[in-house]
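Marked as duplicate of an earlier ticket. Keeping the data here for the record.
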Amino acid sequence: MNLLLGDQVGHFIVRWSVVCFVILLTSGIILWWPKKRKIKQIKKSFSIKWKAKFKRLNYDLHNVAGFYAFLVLMLIAFTGLMWSFGLTTEKKSKLQSDTTQQLTKTRDDIILQQALKRSPETAYFLYNFPAAKSATINLSAYQSNTSLYDRIQYRFDRYSGKLLEQSPEFKDLTITSKIIALNYDLHTGSAVGLPGKFIAFLSSLIAASLPVTGLLIWLNKKNR
């Protein structure tokens, strides 16, 4: 997310690189679009001539492979931009723990028991320890081992273990909230399981090849 260069530099580079990537994808699909509507010309736009000379093969690998990966790469890019521009950031909760109470030794057991009772089908829990004295303990109950969107979030008083807030289940969320919850799984392809992750992986390999094949096309035109 920030290339180990911090938010001021690294995050800035990543954000605007992805914006440029979206522009390149859009302009690329416009250039790919068949100008002639003849069936023969259209077929050329959808197939790679594997037995052609290197220049033509490189051209097809850039155009045709780029076309097939276009929609997946756009999805990966847009979900990445949602992070970059803070569209998936959750609003800070105004809930606070009661600092007048003393820490209960069995607090963690109380919290876990309540969470298990309310979410018995949970695959695993993510337990966030509070930093501030008045902060709450945030517990995320993930309902699947393979995806992150289906989760229920709880907020507990850090001293008494009392439940202060529970988020709705994924099926009860609004459409906007569902899209935000699905962002990571859409970005990685895990929203549709292992096949989706494989498609995202293959599309990313194609994306990595596009600058190489594109540069070779540009050099060939420059030499001509």
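See parent ticket for discussion. The mean pLDDT is 90.
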